Structures are given as structure tokens and as C-alpha cells.
From TrEMBL:
UniProt keyword terms in alphabetical order: NAD, Oxidoreductase
Entry protein name: 2-hydroxy-3-oxopropionate reductase
Lineage top rank: taxon: Bacteria
Organism in which the protein naturally occurs: Oscillochloris trichoides DG-6
GO molecular function: NAD binding; NADP binding; oxidoreductase activity
């Protein structure tokens, strides 16, 4: 019999991830703060729970995929949280992006109740969640990673055990430094191409497969050219992650000058009411500084 899976958090990433688990044949129980988001999965055969504690009571492995560190704490340790329904021997997997220190604290609290824990944040955007090609970075015990592997394999393609509790989140923050730094470089390159008058689509085709190629360039560059700001990952969520990056960097004394500057660019876009747009809208901050709009004939 496959293990019973619980899934908490059916947002832009979580709903696709949970759907893959259900289609793979695992018994699935779901909960989301906005209950209407459960309806599609329930129609496909999932059970709807009344709270995170109710999910835990019906599950052997409980996955959380929520917005921020306070949300992780609330659904895991708060009133009606997982800890109030979970049974000894269960495994809790947090696939949110959250504070590494908070993950270590949560793991220790659960361990005192006989419950295992992994932090397993993800990368790949909504596209990766929909296609089950996510990168998954895992912190925790090797035996627990092995237990969870059949579930990870229906959601992701690159699955890496990177260390002990909290290490998954640390590596995810490394990922986010690279994501935003690359997006800034893509933005500057496209603005230069626009100002120079070359064909933008041919420019992307020419550079995407060479040394400058990247996931961000191939997936977000075309969106920028179309002025398509639909989010694979929103500016507001990107800012949440960058706050975690800068807090963690402060703790270890790592200077992140470029990342700090990008944080301020995103803050300016949030102040302009653009927080719900995709994080590739970073280019708008640079466009506004130079008066050049990519994709415009002006």
C-alpha cells in the first residue's frame, strides 16, 4: 500500500504538485486556507480536510507548501497545526521557501514528538510545477529522504539531498541569488539590444544556446519581449525570498551587494503597485531609470 499523503497549501505551485501526487496513485488529503482551491482536487478523488491537524491525522507523509516562514510555523506548530494531529512515525516535508533557522527549530520540535522532518524547497516556477520538472533541494536525514523519494519523483526531476536540517533552505537561497542576478543581467542585455536597434527575437535566438544561455533567458526573455507579466513567481514572493537571503547573509557575514541592489529595485516596483506581476518585471525598474522600453518602437 502506498503511504497516505497530506498536502497543505494549494497556491500557484502547490496545486500542480498535489495533482501529480494524486495522479500517481497516492491516497491524498488536502487543505488550503481558501477552501475553494481544494474543489478541483476533491473532484479528482482527493479528500478535503478541515485543518492542518486534520490533514496530519489522515496522513503518513505531510507536505507543506505555503508563502512564508510565519505561515510554515502556523500550519505546523500553531493552533490546529500539524503537530496537534500528527502521529509518531510520520514525516513532515516543508517545500516552502523559509528561514533555515526556523526549519531547524521546527525539525527539533517535531522530533520531540517522534515525527521526522525534511526541508525541501523547490525551484522551477509554475512551469516546473505543472510539468513535474522541479528542482528539489533537501535538508534532513538520509533515511527520511529515501522514504520520501517516491513522492519527490512525481513532482520533480532534479532531486538533491544537500545536507542536514536547514541545508535545503540555504541552498534554495543560493538559487534565489542566482535567479535575481541573472534576471538583472537579462534585463540589461535586452535594454542594450533595444537601444542598439537590433532584432530582439533574433538576438534571443542567437545567444540562448551559447555561453550566455540560461533557464531565465530562455523562459523569461520571450515573456519580456511580449510584455507579458503573468507570474511564474511574483515580485512579492521574490521579495520575501530576498529578505530571507539578506537576513541569512547578515548572520554569516557574506556581502551581497548586487542582491541588495536588486531587492531595492523590486521594492520600487512594489511601491508602484506591481507586486503581483512576475519577477521578470524587474526590467521595468531599469527601463524607468533609462527611459528605454524593451519591445517598444518608440
Amino acid at each position: 500500500m502506498p503511504e497516505r499523503i497530506g498536502f497543505i497549501g494549494l497556491g500557484i505551485m502547490g496545486r500542480s504538485m498535489a495533482a501529480h501526487i494524486l495522479r500517481a496513485g497516492f491516497p491524498l488529503t488536502v487543505w488550503n486556507r481558501t477552501s475553494s482551491r481544494m474543489e478541483e482536487l476533491v473532484a479528482q478523488g482527493a479528500n478535503a480536510a478541515t485543518s492542518p491537524a486534520d490533514v496530519a491525522a489522515q496522513s503518513d507523509i505531510i507536505i507543506t507548501c505555503v508563502s512564508d516562514t510565519p505561515d510554515v510555523r502556523a500550519v505546523t506548530l500553531g493552533e490546529a497545526g500539524i503537530i496537534h494531529g500528527v502521529h509518531a512515525g510520520a514525516l513532515v516535508i516543508d517545500m516552502s521557501t523559509a528561514s533555515p533557522q526556523a526549519e531547524r527549530e521546527i525539525a527539533a520540535t517535531l522530533a520531540a514528538h517522534g515525527v521526522a522532518h525534511l526541508d525541501a524547497p523547490i525551484s522551477g516556477g509554475s512551469e516546473g510545477a505543472a510539468k513535474a520538472t522541479l528542482s528539489i533541494m533537501i535538508g534532513g536525514a538520509a533515511a527520511d529522504v529515501e522514504r520520501a523519494m517516491p513522492v519527490f519523483q512525481v513532482m520533480g526531476k532534479t532531486i538533491t539531498h544537500v545536507g542536514d536540517h536547514g541545508a535545503g533552505q540555504t541552498v534554495k537561497l543560493v538559487n534565489q541569488i542566482l535567479v535575481v542576478g541573472t534576471m538583472r543581467a537579462v534585463s540589461e542585455a535586452l535594454i542594450f539590444a533595444q537601444a542598439s536597434g537590433v532584432d530582439l527575437e533574433k538576438t534571443l535566438a542567437a545567444v540562448s544556446s551559447g555561453a550566455a544561455g540560461s533557464w531565465t533567458l530562455s523562459n523569461r526573455g520571450p515573456q519580456v519581449l511580449r510584455r507579458d507579466w503573468r507570474p511564474g513567481f511574483t515580485i512579492d514572493l521574490q521579495q520575501k525570498d530576498l529578505r530571507l537571503v539578506l537576513e541569512a547573509a547578515d548572520q554569516v557575514g557574506a556581502p551581497l551587494e548586487n542582491t541588495a541592489a536588486i531587492f531595492q529595485m523590486y521594492r520600487a516596483l512594489q511601491a508602484a503597485g506591481l507586486g503581483s506581476e512576475g519577477n521578470h518585471a524587474l526590467i521595468k525598474a531599469i527601463e524607468r531609470m533609462c527611459g528605454i522600453e524593451v519591445g517598444s518602437n518608440a
